[in-house]
Amino acid sequence: MMDVFLSEVRYLAAAADDFVEIVVAAGTDVSNIQVVVYNEFGTVEGQASLGVPVATMNGYDVYVLTDVDMPGSGGVYKTDSVALVDDGVVTQFIGLEGGATLATEGPAAGLTSDPVPSINNDGTLSVKSYDGTNFITEARDEGVFTPPCFAPGTLIETKMGPRAVETLMPGDKVCVRGGPPEPILWVTSRTLRLGPKTLHHGPIEIKCGALGQGLPERDLVVSPQHRILLGGHGVEQQYDVAEVLGMAKGLLPMGGVRRMKGKAQITYHTLMLARHRVIFAEGLPVESFYPGLYILRGFPASVQAKITTLVPTLATNPGQGYGPHAAPVLRRAGVEQLVKFGQAQTPACGQDRVVPVQQAGPDTFEAFVA
């Protein structure tokens, strides 16, 4: 993998939503690195230095440049080309929508952009690379950026009782709904700097008792995409199933749930088991990490390799190789619909929640409690 490369170019959105993302080996001096956007005629539309990283993840700093950072660019258009320039040398020059543009000025003058094929989609598109060499074009997916994560200090129910998420390691057993404790397969964390460009990644706080039955037992802070187990009459009536997993950000319209503001950064912690499971955070039933196709692609190649080593079926079947979800999944709009009618609540799950019984003998350490 290259030490500095274009990892994503978002285009065909509103200009304010377009961006260029660059991945750099953590700690690298980026003072001489620039991104230059060229139009189809080969002239410069906008350019900018990298500034301050918005996140550090798995050994890489992530930088995001928007049209605000590149005055005059007006966002990124489908006929544009994007150049990455390191100390005056063009290290990458890609053309969107299959276009090949001859630059007539600026640092790429005399060079022709390498075309990235289009998938002929009229929606918001991204050109992405996970190694700096191979590029793909794909439609935007709302779950691709921030995997389900917990904030530091979140208490996870384990075989040995509640433990802060940041202290958990592979092999530690966590309580799962409907079965005995299962070992953690993989953990990771990343620190995200919060600002105007990353507000949509900011943490969601669910206040103590907001979802009924006194749950969560303490204020719970999770990433926006983290799914919560919801149930009750409203779910059965609308979706003809007993329970669903819904994104935390879909709960924002209800009382006791808010997007936290004023934080300079947040560290997110992720837990993956051998299969998708409902686990317990601050007593609330929530999901463990599910390495779906788009979320998996959002990690650097080295992390993807680690995950597929742990779950080999993901290498041959990246879309479904991890197995089924622990419960049917609702998108944000579906969760908001439940909130609208006052039907977003946690299911009555005490009868099959596995918790440690400290007074039990060694052969009966786990027990089902009502």
TrEMBL record:
Record domain Hedgehog/Intein (Hint): where: 148-292
SUPFAM superfamilies assigned to the protein according to its UniProt record, in alphabetical order: Hedgehog/intein (Hint) domain
Q: Which domain of life is it from?
A: Bacteria
Q: What is this protein called?
A: Hedgehog/Intein (Hint) domain-containing protein
